[in-house]
Amino acid sequence: MVSIIGAGPVGNYLASQLSSKGEKVNVYEEHSKIGVPVACTGILTSYLSDFVKVSEDYIVNKINETHVYSPNGNFVKLRLKKNFIVDRTLFDSHFAEVAKSEGAKYHNNHKFVSMKNSVLKFQNGNKIKSDVIVGADGPNSLVARSAGIFGDRKFVVGHQARVKLKKKIDSNVVEFFLGEGNYIGWLVPEDDKVVRLGVASHQGTDEHFKDLIKKRNGKILGWQSGAIPVYDPKLKIEKDNTFLVGDAATQVKATTYGGIIPGMNAANALRDRILEGNSYTKGVKKGIGKSLKTHLLVRNIMNKFSENDYNDLIELCGNDSVKKLIYEHDREYPIKLLMSLAIKEPRFLKFLRCF
User: Fold this and answer.
1) pLDDT for residue 348
2) Residue ranges of domains in the chain, CATH in brackets
3) Residue 101, helix vs strand vs coil
4) Quick check: 27 and 155 in contact, CB under 8 A?
5) Are 25 and 4 in contact (CB under 8 A)?
6) Model-level pTM greater than 0.85?
7) Which of 98, 173, 202, 268 is most open to solvent, judged by the fewest CB atoms within 10 Å of its CB?
8) Is the peptide bond before 37 cis (omega within 30 degrees of 0)?
9) Among candidate residues 108, 64, 65, 57, the one with its CA nearest the CA of residue 87
10) What is the pLDDT of residues 234-292, one digit of tens each?
């Protein structure tokens, strides 16, 4: 029996993958409703279709362009392959229903507390013995702590709000804002008035958000904030019969802080470990781990950028040949993009001094 702690998108995806192959799967969710509370921007690249059948049931908007702003206020317009803006509550519950249809059993109101000798203990008093235990329970994973593999992980703080803007915008455009100190801000439109406005940084997130909402003024409808793990390639993601996946394993892109696609990719490696006995750690390192390490490398370089560096970066990205490369090589897997940029536009190499 496989016990998955956490009914987020990655846990639900893994549950459906295992159940469809005949595995007995139980998913334990601490909240009474799957997908609540929301703590994610909910913007997904077209690579989502590599893992699941994309459904209009949970899509609230589609975008095909981004504007990326430098600290001096200049911005570059970049075409995107189709990106999906999803309702995270509907998104999570949809894939829970898919997993249920494959035979997975769900148990809400089951907050995981601890485990010992493969026996899981929940806050409601229930105790369950399991052959395989999967921690898909987010960045502060209690499964990781209980198994002794939480490690010395790092986090950034993310503040996001749903905002009704005072002025209409182009709902096909997502905006990103770059700045010193590991700062990134975003505006993700649900429609031409309601957006998800957010910031992430190691420090000063409150001030960053105040500055951003001055630029995109509106009424706050609700908050959707949370901690974001920084990918750690050295983190131990398995011990005996316990495995970590998704945010619980810090499998998040360090550049944009998106984790759903990388998490699903890692879930495939874990599926193969459970069904076929392949090494999960090696599967991740040979697969999505390479891309995550590249995102981390880029983030570590950008963390040392000055405002002038960011201004120069955006100016370089305005080159038509660079725009074409960025469109052709999606941000999800940046290795080919970086190699192509270095060849096509050698001036990008000057940023390596920040390595």
Assistant:
1) 73
2) 2-37+88-153+232-296 (3.50.50.60), 43-84+154-228 (3.30.9.10), 304-354 (no CATH)
3) helix
4) no
5) yes
6) yes
7) 202
8) yes
9) 57
10) 999 999 999 999 999 999 999 989 999 999 999 999 999 999 999 999 999 999 999 99
